[in-house]
Design goal:
The protein has about 120 residues and is an alpha/beta fold. It contains four helices and five strands, in the order αβαβαβαββ.
Length: about 120
């Protein structure tokens, strides 16, 4: 079952990237918040890296290994001027805080279990 879940996650990684670009076509820099210890997150990262140049998006890898690293992740997103966020499906990512951060910074975001969030105009 692990191999199957990795294949599903990998397929979704590309779709998340395409959906965010379709919903917010002006974005050119996207941050991927992920836990590198989670194999399905790593699979999505590799898939998105391959797809990004074809849809003219630069990806920023922002690692979240535990909830204590989320503030550093937010600082990296701001410092590197990401224009949108995709969040890997991992329980350490603190989705409520990520949603608040994305809304406060007017960043479109895709969260696997939380859906999609687009900033209000």
């Amino acid at each position: 079952m692990t191999g199957l879940s990795l294949m599903i996650e990998e397929q979704f990684g590309g779709k998340w990237l395409e959906l965010l670009k379709e919903a917010a076509p002006q974005v050119s820099r996207l941050a991927y918040l992920w836990n590198p210890a989670n194999p399905s997150n790593a699979s999505s990262w590799w898939t998105m890296q391959e797809l990004a140049p074809t849809i003219r998006v630069t990806l920023q890898s922002v690692e979240i290994r535990d909830r204590g690293s989320i503030d550093d992740a937010f600082a990296a997103i701001i410092r590197d001027r990401a224009e949108g966020i995709i969040v890997g499906s991992d329980p350490v990512n603190g989705q409520a805080r990520i949603i608040e951060f994305a809304a406060a910074n007017h960043l479109p975001a895709i969260l696997p279990s939380g859906g999609m969030s687009l900033p209000a105009d």
